[in-house]
Amino acid sequence: MCNYKWFRNSIGEAALVVGEVISVDKIPELRGRVFGAVMAYLGEVKKKPGGPPFVAYHNINMQALDVEASFPVLAKLPGKGDIKPTTIPGGEVATCMHTGSYESIKDTYAAFMAWVKEQGASQRAWPTSLT
């Protein structure tokens, strides 16, 4: 069950990310490793995150998820090593909150996409989860 919300005017924001292709069961390890590395880098450059950590999904293959994980930042920063600068696109954004395991997220995603379609909208970008 989701609490659906619609934001019509989300703005784009800068972020630092680490991209990988992993299976769904590796997401908890990825989050810990990437979030720790990015926080260490932000400490080096004396900056703070601009919002909560996230994982962006670029496909829905649970055995080979193409993901980017990290934090938004308050200003564009250079990358370092595997940490790359990017921009989270702005525009219309629909949200819902998934409660449960990563293995069950596909059911929430299916229900959410049905709700988006009922609103007369369509998906223009891959989903992102805030942690």
Radius of gyration equals: 15 Å
CATH class: Alpha Beta
Reading the helices and strands in chain order gives EEHEEEEHE
The assigned structural class equals alpha+beta
> What kind of sheet is the major sheet?
5 strands, antiparallel
Distance between the termini: 18 Å
Q: Which stretches are poorly predicted, pLDDT < 50 over at least 5 residues?
A: none
* Mean of all residue-level pLDDT scores: 87
CATH architecture: Alpha-Beta Barrel
Order of strands across the widest beta sheet? 5-2-4-3-7
Helical region count? Answer: 2
Give the number of domains: 1
**How many DSSP E strands?**
7
Provide a short characterization of the protein structure.
The protein contains 2 helices and 7 strands, in the order ββαββββαβ. It is of the alpha+beta class. It is globular, with a radius of gyration of 15 Å.
Describe the structure.
The chain has 131 residues and is of the alpha+beta class. The protein has a single domain (5-130), classed as Multidrug-efflux Transporter 1 Regulator Bmrr, Chain A. The chain is built from two helices and seven strands. The strands form two sheets. It has a five-stranded antiparallel β-sheet, covered by helices on one side. β3 and β4 (65-72) form a beta hairpin. The longest helix is centred in the first third of the chain and has 18 residues, at 27-44. The mean pLDDT is 87.
